[in-house]
Amino acid sequence: MAVNTEAYQTVKQELDAKQVTLVAVSKTKPVEDIVELYDSGHRDFGENYVQELVDKQAALPKDIRWHFIGHLQSNKVKYIAPFVQLIHGVDSLKLLKEINKEAGKNNRIIDVLLQVHIAQEETKFGLNEEELNLIIQEFENLKMTNVRVCGLMGMASFSDDLEKVRSEFRYLKMLFNKSADKFTIHPSPFTILSMGMSGDYKVAVEEGSTMVRIGSLLFGARNSSK
Ligand SMILES: *Cc1c(COP(=O)(O)O)cnc(C)c1O
């Protein structure tokens, strides 16, 4: 069996006790693996690549909640807009506007998270604090009606130094609290803090994560560096 159901049950229990949502990251893994977790009751799955997500969505039960956790190009929003549950990696106003437009075409309101750059690595996508504040301000000014900004997402440094990782999560949580104060709508939809992966989710939860994205711990290591 490809799925580590024992690890799944352990992690799931641990997270349920703290009311943290588990997104099972199934990128590069076959639909059979997803079905296996689906059959044990899991519904939240995360994917990084648009084409792969579209193919899997077509092949699998329609009550799966699909999270797009990769870097999304504006010209590809249209492919996932009809069904996506939550887009985690929004890091530009251009992308936010495009999601709003495509959601409108589909008569939907799409939930998104803004991605903040918290790691030391240069290669990771995401906003800095100033850019984050600007996007939130613009979002409020433009009155986009088909997109809801529901929180923040971040990836910590790829490092064994868990204290470093902890301080990055703590910083993201601080930005999350500050940002939440800026939303004038009541009740505020700004409630999700997506942080934590296989190697660092425990630290993330300790620092206030409400949603973790876990792949290799559940599905085994991936073949490529994807
Ligand atoms: C791949 C990926 C994950 C899951 O990583 P694991 O280390 O396998 O748990 C989480 N978040 C994002 C954005 C990813 O790309």
From TrEMBL:
Function according to Swiss-Prot or TrEMBL: Pyridoxal 5'-phosphate (PLP)-binding protein, which is involved in PLP homeostasis.
Modified residues (N6-(pyridoxal phosphate)lysine): K27
Keyword S-adenosyl-L-methionine listed: no
Obligatory cofactor(s): pyridoxal 5'-phosphate
Name this polypeptide is given: Pyridoxal phosphate homeostasis protein
GO molecular function, one term: pyridoxal phosphate binding
Family of this protein: Belongs to the pyridoxal phosphate-binding protein YggS/PROSC family.
